[in-house]
Amino acid sequence: RIEGFVRQLGPPFCVPLCSPMSALLVHRLSVLGVGVALFLNVACAAQPDLPPENDNRVCKLGRGDDCHDEDADSSLVQAAKLIVPKLDVRRAVESRAAARTRSTGDATDKAVLAATVPSALAEQTTVNDLVAVHTGNRDAGGASAARLLVIPGFLVIFAACAVSPLLSRYLAELVGTFVLVLTVFCCVMTGSGTWNALAIACVLMAMIYATGSISGANLNPAVSLTLGLTGKLTFGDVIKYWVAQLIGGFSAAGCAAALFPATDLPALAPVGHFEAGHVVIAEMLYTFMLCFVVLNCAVSKRNNSPHDGNEFYALAIGFVIVAGGYAVGGVSGAAFNPAVAAALDVHLGGFGGWSVVYVVAEFVGAALAAVLYSVVRPDETYPQEQFRRYLPTLPIKCVSEFLGTFFLVLTVCLNLITGSPAVALSAAAALMCMVYSLGDVSGAHFNPAVTAACVARGKCPVGEALAFVLTQLLAGVLAGLLSGLFHAASKTKEITFGIKPGDGYNLIQAGGVEFFATFVLAYTVLAVATTQPLPNQASRQKMYFALTIAFCVTAGGFGIGAISGGELNPAVSFGISMLGMASPGKTDMVSILPMIGISLMEVLGGVFAAIVFFLTHPKERDADAPEEIASMLCEFVGTFVLVFTVGCCVLTGSGTWNATAIASVLMAMIYATGPVSGGNLNPAVSLSLGLSGNMTLGKVLRYWVAQLLGGGLAGFAVNTLLAPKELSLEPGASFSPWHAVLAEVIYTAMLCFVVLNVAASRRNNPPDNGNQYFALAIGFVIVAGGYAAGGISGACFNPAVALGVDIKRFGLGWGFVWGLAELSGAVLAVLLYRLVRPDETLSEVEAAEYTASLPTKCASEFLGTFMLVLTVGLNVVMASPATAWSAAAALMSMIYSLGSVSGAHFNPAVTLAIVAGGRNKCPGKDAVAFSLTQIIAGILAGLLCAGFHTAGPNAEKTFALQPGEKYDALGAGLCEMLFTFVLGYVVLAVATTKQPQQQLSKQPFHFALAIASCVTAGGNAVGAASGGELNPAVAIGVAAQDLSFGFFVSFALWELLGGALAAVAFRATHRGEFVEDLSEKA
Length: 1082
Description:
mainly alpha, globular
């Protein structure tokens, strides 16, 4: 049957190579490979236990709540008999009875349980005990053997496509969808509602970057449909992509069934009291948004010139999941993908339950995306000459503004309704996706305050601005009204949402912080979106512009949300007020006066941003204007904004998001002020640039004055505005000053080291090909160190921050000590910079011929691995809420810094993958040296973590390297293998392949971002099962910190196997890297 089906699919699945005999051989091998692989993956799902009939677990990708049981009906035993006729029905009955006891506690069900299971089990009284015994029985029944079938399933598929090269395109879709759906399953079953949507978004982004050059990386039948409807993909390819995507999704379901207890497997259904209508609207809207972003970012002519393509497409697409996952994860589960919906349904034994509703809604969303894409981009069908002359009309621009504002406000309101733990991050993601999509249509303001700033800047005519503002407010009102439909069925239906100061704060304080945060947002928009690209940037596309704008919302939302709500946008304020008025039983005009007052402050913040912009960017008005005073003003403004945000986060923010908010505002200010002053914003950074010869001593001293003045005034402003609360600085609980000083030295050194490498080194900044990732790498050092060392020293890493936080003592308390430690870290950074980049002191001719020696490469590998493992270790021993996110940030910053020195492997499994990937990307001698260096660095970092552990608040706890609770060594090992495979595959695909012709810059913006995203995804998806190390060096570091090496060899071998499988998959999907012309070869 499979052979007949494949024959109907046509040539791509049956490729004639040289002769009829070889064609037949290739055809039959391909069919056999796909067939056997499917059988093996389905067999993984056919465990001795099946999910209980009434255990319909609802997946909540965007909620902090655990999955809960809902009444549902399924014919699992009957379906299972069709797959495995000799299935032990008794065990399925046991599973059902256990689930009914768990979900209802009914005495009758307990009697059924007692009649069908051993008496010892019948005596159990708690849910955890029942699940533990049930899981143990399952493992004893042969699940371990079935789980091992995952590996041959992989190998057979890869081998089939290696024999039949033109299958690579469809294999890329299969592999990408498999990884995506598997991550969804793992997050739902073991992850955290705080991080699930981010983890899934990160893996989607990574797989799009990895497979986009091969298949276009649809990874979603709805995306393929919308591409077909717009003529970007033939319908023949749409059908073939659907087949590959569904096979990938079903295979992922089989793997999940093999990896996790059957009673943990999720099902698809509305969450809580939401109904089918809510599910249809949620899935349709956010699938529409996803497909609309794909069309605009990945295929539109203006965003994808054949001579200057963008690198932000996958970032924009992936972060739709952050927007929608947190917004409607508590409504529908946030699938947005028929392959995800079908996989969540098919593992229960059939297809045709809720997945039909989901799939129909998602396909409708895809169709609507195609229609509205043609509305906002009518030029897509124009002849070349007419296309070149085309300018959007005002109605089209207003449609663009309506769509962007509507989805921004809807996302904010739905996050509030569902009790999301990440409102600001979700809102920022929605803003970023739509700005990337529509920036070249209307400018993508989506905010009356931003429009006011653009008018004051002279970039938007007054008549057009008025039309934009009215459109934005209308979109906000309609989004608020639509959100009211969800509010009526939500757990928060008794809460009336409105615009008002937070508890304990007054309107003056709320208005003041809204003015400040909106000023930051509007100033950043003006600086990154209305100015020309830097002269040294080869590409005219600013890859970072929407990311930078969105991070202002992240910083403002988390920084001031508890004070004012953190709207930063009158359209959002109108939408939330309308949601309050639409609440059930509410007829009064809720919080109208505070809403008007705060909205006015937001508009004033936008106008003030234009005034400051003209002072800090004088060349925008006069090309001959001097910049010496402007550069000092940039340093003052940037440092003030940074320290004020730090103060708000410390006094009112959340420990889960504070470091992310501070990193976001630092990145935004560096991008905004970098073209004028370099964006130092830190006396330690200025010192390191001076010592390395990249800045004169006089300039260093001038910058110090501006930075310290900005930091001190910001600290004073925070204490004054938020009194009686006030900032203070001291070592963390139970740590001595020496621990705090050491933490400040290490992470300030890392910060300055990253600055020197990404912003000052010649190899990363040639005069005609500068990079665009510099601020991203610098900012995310704060994510790495903030979570790792925040509980030890407060994580200042900046003398101006230390002064601002210690302003009540005028910086003469611990702030002075911290400042000395941070300046010492700057000196250390310069020494390490000279160690890994000796070519910086060579002449231009000598530097052009320079190749790093093996000792220099090993020093690079040591530093990167040491900081990665240290960051992981400190997060672990400090019980950080964001270990995977922090580790990914450390990895990303160090890869951007050292990729041009050693390749920045920092992982023996990655080194193995690169060696096995061929093309002489890493000689064997280098690989051995790298691996040994990485292991040594891991051990030393682990031992250093042990020193902090013994002095910290968790000294009595042990953090051993071992499988998670309720998981065995085999399950944990398979989890490590699968996600190390993902990491290795993405490294090979984004960091070792030929550069696309349409990519002008030789400094790719996305490579380290994509690699680090795999750590975010894997760490959160399987951290509860295996720890999510994905790296033998990290594993040995974790083991070394409490000398528990019992599981190290097992974990390391599984991770190395994952790296080897990544090389096999890469060879199968990226045939072009090995065979230049397949037709000639045939």
